[in-house]
Amino acid sequence: MKRVIVLGSDGFIGWSLTKYLCERGDSVLGIDNTIRRSLVLKTKGDSILPITNVYKREKLLRDQGNDFTFQYGNLTKSCVIRNAIKTFEPEVIVHLGEIPSAPYSMMGVEEAGFVQTNNILSTLNLLFAVKEINSDIKIIKLGTMGQYQIGNIPISEGWIDIEYKGRKETVPFPKVPGSMYHISKNQDTLNIEFACRVWGLNCTDINQGVVFGVHIDCELTQPEFFTRLDADSIWGTAINRFCSQAVIEHPITVYGSGGQKRGFLPLRDSVRCITLLIDNPTNGYRIVNQLADIYQVSQLAIVVKKIAGEFGLDVKINNYENPRFESEDHFYEVERNVLNNLGYKSSIGLEDEIRNVICALLPYKERIKLLEHVLVPDIFWSGENKKSNILGENS
After folding, report:
1. pLDDT band for position 221 (50/70/90)?
2. Under a CB-based contact definition with an 8 Å cutoff, are residues 27 and 69 in contact?
3. CA angle 222, 225, 228 (to 5 degrees)
4. pTM above the 0.85 mark?
5. Where are the domains of the chain?
6. Class for domain 3-231+264-292+331-348, per CATH?
């Protein structure tokens, strides 16, 4: 049994991880200011799956015999994490407590500033608190594969050997962030690496692919334990959004040509990968690329359309004007040795998990219909605010 603090315990991954750790016997303190809930509502979205009040979830989990405490707290206030470390005395802190939306960060200067301030300051507060109170605590920090430069060479697991003008050196893999949100994650990485190198902290810095799915085990028979699931163009992730669109027979929104390649993994695998890293801590600084498989976005849309057809759903795939600034035709290969060496293997195939998602969302068809107005992107990296135009309609 471990003593674990989960920062961001009310989030999509955070709640699933919290519940999973509790049910395997860990003592868990969850900290969150629940701002994700209010920000999603502010941008006219909502969780597709209805989610329970945080304090009711805490009681329900404790009533089942789990050692769980929830604390409301704003991580940009240094006293929150300091007091938690002093009173709870964790062995591990998993930091998921950041604003996770690239589109939200591109809405304007207020949103960009808020995302960067929230994300960077929360990580700084964590690093300084661990340094000053107990530097033996292991930190696991969630970042994103979107921090890396996408180019013509494989993406290494954090570091790359180069030769320049006859001299050799090992340097961090190039970082070319894809949004103001991703910039905050790159700043986190710089701060974490510095804290490990100079202060001797022990941190695992995760670069994670796009997560999809609705549950990790049996939550579908326990609605009170649902984690949130967003499908709108600001907070939703690609496969979850495609499945939600399919359920109401709304055209699947493929950005641009759909040739973009990205790493993906099911929610259940995200939780189990983080658990593997908790159980196999590192000394010093460790970078981990966390994904199951690589897919082209257009390929995913075709798979969702096909599986939706199994449920009698008639779904079109439409290509929309890409609101993002990104290459749509590129090489993409990712090294992922750390988790593979720890024994990670994907627990479920892509098609089976997509079936699970669609099956889980069908009872909430009317909730998705209420959100139909936010399924098409309207935040452009260029600064325009408009609904994305359809480039092509596909059967």
Report:
1. low
2. no
3. 120
4. yes
5. 3-231+264-292+331-348
6. alpha beta
